[in-house]
Amino acid sequence: MIIEFLGHLHPVFVHLPIGVLILAYIVQYFFRTDQDKSKLIDFILIVGLLSSILAAFFGWMLSLSGGYEEDMLSLHKWLGIFVCFSSLILLIIKRIPRNKTTNIIYHVSFQVVIFALTAAGHFGGELTHGEGYLFSFDQKDSKSVSTNVLNKQKINDTSLMSVYAGIVEPIFSQKCMQCHNDKKKKGDFQMHNFDALMKGGKTGKALIPGDLAHSELMVRLMLDKSDDKHMPPKGKLQLNKPEQDMLSWWVLHGTSQSVSIKEVSSNDTIKYFLSNVEKVDGVKKEIDSIAPADSAMINNLKNANIAVEPIALGSNFLEVNAINTPTFGDKDATKIGKIAPQIKWLMLSETQITDATLDNIVGCENLEKMNLKNTSISNASITKINKLKKISYLNIVGTKITDAGLLQLTPVQEGIQIYCWNTAITENGIKQFMKKFPDAKVYIGGKN
Amino acid sequence: MEELINKHFENKRRDFLRGSVLGLGGVALNSLFGCGSKAGDRKMIQQVSEEVNAPLVHPHFAPKAKRVIYLFQSGGPSQMELFDYKPKLYEMHGQEIPASVIGKNRISGMVSNQYSFPLAMPASTFKQYGSNGAYFSDLIPHTASIADDICVVRSMFTEQINHEPAVIFTQTGNQLSGRPSIGSWLSYGLGSMNDNLPAFIVMLSKGGGDQPISSAAWSSGFLPSYHQGVQFMSGDDPVPFLNNPSGVDRMDRRKALDFIKGFNKVQNEVWHDPEVESQISQYEMAYKMQMAIPSVTDLSDEPQHILDMYGPDVKIPGTFAHNCIMARRLAEKDVRFVQLYHLGWDHHGSLASGIKRATSMTDQASAALVKDLKQRGLLDDTLVIWGGEFGRTSFSQGKLTPEGFGRDHHPGAYSMWMAGGGTKPGLVYGETDDFAHNVVKDKVHVHDFQATMLHLLGIDHEKFIYKSQGRRYRLTDVSGNVIHNLIA
User: Which ipTM did the prediction report?
Assistant: First the structure.
């Protein structure tokens, strides 16, 4: 306990000797002519010496808690101790009477101290942040140690890659391997490959296939964030819920190294995880690939009491809704044409529009939802609706569209929802339509 | 009066001081750096002030649901009689509930002096429905018929064991009244889509039961008071005094309101009281509602087959069925949040007959609402929620007799369902133990449910914050996880 605490003081004190000894160096060589500085340098060197001894002591305590790669640790340790001794010697040389020889020895020793200090500091940094930290500029990789480059391959449900390699390992690599890798093994636990992972650490096996409650790793993930044993530790990047669910699934289903993503892709947990790979960390804003619509045109519509709003904060895609304007007609629809590419949702239900309106809507290349409920739209509009390639929700409830119109419809989006209650469309018509588009969802509702 | 005037000047003084401190600070900083910063930079320094509460206006991300209809079943519907099929209870009828099941859970004062806790067989039978074979009881055949459209959560749990705090907890995220309810949060955050109707409308059904429900459940808390739920009355006139008195025409009304508004504005300049602004906006809303409400409440344009869907009560104003069809009509008008309350689920005794009565009043209309929304294409972006404030115990409260037995409040496990608005249809989520007493899989806390609901509405619950009296508040307070598995 006390050893751990003292160890944790190492990062606090380690920067003192670095700063102080370099200050001594600066004073020594920056003010070359000033003779009064000698006493000052003495003082700074003493402070530097004492702080380097403290830092080395705390560092030794820290090394006892383990988890570091031995080779680099011993290099860092001995360099640190060397800094202590060499600065002591430097101080002694400085105090003995000067002649030409001692003078040379003094200056050489000073260079040696500073060099050793730099080297010790460098290797300390490598120990904490991973090997090659100084020259790795890709944020993610530098965090997760050179041996485990994040799997950047695009994964989907047809991947032949194993669940372990394609999903589980990248999660570990991103969130755990900074401290549990082939170099650094906190708690004697390494996660950089499957065997090490299954071997476990100080507290025993980390994963017991099929048993979440006794898998130490899972228990630690699920513990409350405020718990001391929770992993990843406070302040580190945490696993999000889909990642936790994913790992739970993998452990429950036997921690297999070989089962492929394709084999299990029908599972809900996997499906959810895959469909959200790119937005698992919070919900990322939709990246708009479209320029903002002309604000004058938007205001033009707004002045006519038509709601034109971004679908989300910061999005350039728009929802147009005429709920407050039952008088909305073909003439108003011409205004829509001006902002057509940006419109994603278009709600024109219960308005006065006719087939002529659709001429202004054909330009809505990004339109996903269109509600034409209870308008006098007829089969004549179908060819124009067919030009809207992205449409996935089409509401033609209470319109004049008939079976003939439905059969002309050629939706591009699989699983398009079509609502056609209260029209002349019949069950029979839907059956024929479904033959062509089996994935479409056509809702006719109850009795008309 | 004196005090208010002082307060007003105090405000002005504070404004002045704040302005000058920041202003002088800016100048001082400027000279400190020794070189003239650009005018724009100085302005930036002066603008640094306390963060201001600002509504979102637009959701954080593209929403799946734009409206919510919350069918609140107040009193605590018994999960064992409705959604959570427990064959063990039929087998062990009359036996004591194992002590290990109750564990350290609290039981209420109403049963804590009972010597015996005999398990009670559900007063209903179960069958499988839908393509997933989910179990529903014979008490709710209509709900069972929409099994493929709804998402049943059997693993809800709450922190409160008594009605008032539990209702307030579910509706506001905190057990004490005083925080804004869900509808108020949405009215504040996203605003109204329909200019002529409030964003948050509340309807209570009558004839349910004796447990009262307090209006704190639809209060706006610390949000401006025009975000509180507008309650429709459960009589013939849901909104009273809609018609102008004889001899007063609409133009007169307009002029009178403008005149009053003028006064209010003068007062507002003196008092700076947000309540004055609320008053102005509520007068305006009332004026618009005069026009908009009759077309909402008049059911004469509903064809008979639609009315029949909702059941025989639908034409009686104030019944749950009537409120359900009203909720659908309001959803068609893009009203953001419609909150229904049905009382009468608190069956401490005579559960068998009580729950039969409650389900006969609610089952058909709830299912009809979902079907009706679906055929109109509204279910796609309307979230329907059906559930109460907690569940009930699997052991009997009082003597275990076939007719007389009852069940006590139980916060540890209960069921609810959701439909539409981006939820996963046909899903049964979560599991309880053999006695429906503890959740054993996929726990859903009330805050998790609220976080998930906000997520469907495009809101990140952790970023939807209002600061009041020095503290930042969220609907989910400091907890809540979005349950992604419930989302399609």
Answer: 0.84
